[in-house]
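ok so for the tutorial part 2 we go from a plain amino acid sequence to predicted structure tokens. step 1 is just haveing the sequence, like this:
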Amino acid sequence: MKIFTATLVTETNTFAPSPTGFGGYASFGIFHGDASKVDPDGPLGDGAVELHRLAVAQGHEVVESLSAMAQPSGRTVQAVYEGFRDEILADLRAALPVGAVVLILHGAMVAERCDDCEGELIEEIRRIVGETVPIGVELDLHCHFTEQMKRNADVIVCFKEYPHTDAIDRLREVYALTVATAEGRIRPVTAMHDCRMVGIWHTTREPMIGFVKRMQSLEGKDGVLSVSFGHGFPWGDVAETGARIWVITDNDEVKAQRIAAQLASELWDMREAARPTALLIDAALDRALAVDGGLVVLADVADNPGGGAPCDSTFILSRIVERGISNVALGCIYDIGAVQACKEAGVGTRLTLRIGGKSGVSSGTPLDLKVTVRALADDHRQTMGGTISRLGSAAWVSTDDDVDIVLMTLREQTFSPSAFTGLGIDLAGKRIVVVKSTQHFHAEFAPIAEEVLYVSAPGALTADFVNIPYRVRPPNFWPRVDNPFQDISHA
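step 2 — the prediction. this is what the tokens look like for a chain of 491 residues:
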């Protein structure tokens, strides 16, 4: 059987001021049917490599189309989106006939004139392959699970873990269910329940650890094929933003609806207990300083580029400097100009460097700090599991008060200690490490940390879900409404 695959991934913050253009995708790499060969260890190639491996083991063939990804930012430029969409569709037509389609998408991609890029792409693919060829889709759990997606795909599965440590496992699940559908061994049907909730859920702590296990306990028996909890992406203002649970069964829609509704009820009951907590900057610093030995990791969640933030805010760094706190590492700050200045100065040079605060109000004020250039790299990288993430040219600078700062030229969240250690920064003896990330850092930083604290600093990603200025998304959601299922005036 011939299996067609394509990858198109970005998460759109519709409140971000800067659009996502071709350059945003090019910084990750755009591959035209060869990501598995050219970038096998990268975030675009690893999924295609796994699909080839699975297919070959079963005597199938994979036809690989476009692979493109961009760091989250504003809406994708319409011409860029349409160019990618049309390339995938042209490749599909050239590959016909195919027995199945497997897509690696995000689920929260928004273009200038399309609020549901993934739904539109899946629908166009359905028109080409017809009703009998199964379409399987893997989504990020921060997706907008839409009726258009559900109507046109046979199998949709999203990640269960945040951080997304299970992406390859979920891709294997999509592949297996899609192939089983193509071979007539199952007839998947999907039921979705709108939880009417907007928020963030950390699967690294209870009660969400138990909730993920509960979903998994239902799969693979009594006709239940897959269970997904799509957290939604709160900073995407589209009609179907928000948390949704969907269940895939083998031709039993009633059972799928019942299980989805039951899980949604369980999630609702734990809504307060599952809320992430965050400390104001000084409270977080005070608590970190009170820890007697061991590393404390502070997450600058409001400046996470993985959610569309600029990644150059100075609010936490400013308080560290003002309070004279030492033995700190902070990274990574997106600052092309500062990196260039360090490269021109050279390793060992002491200079006054203007750091951060360059992208707008949400970035704070630039800091002019006396620093020493400790290390430079032309192609700095970090690793998460076996996947490589590129940070571009980078510089390690240190202040006179022993604050080590990593600067980079590719906007990316910090999710691995290798972002620091790869430049020579020893984290073993550090008191505090500040990372610009909401949750992906947890997988690799938590094992080396005495404590992990989430910081409520100013920035582009407000966690005040009550007051997110939605214009498209209806207001009938918790926590804006105490009970959105009863308050019909907001329905």
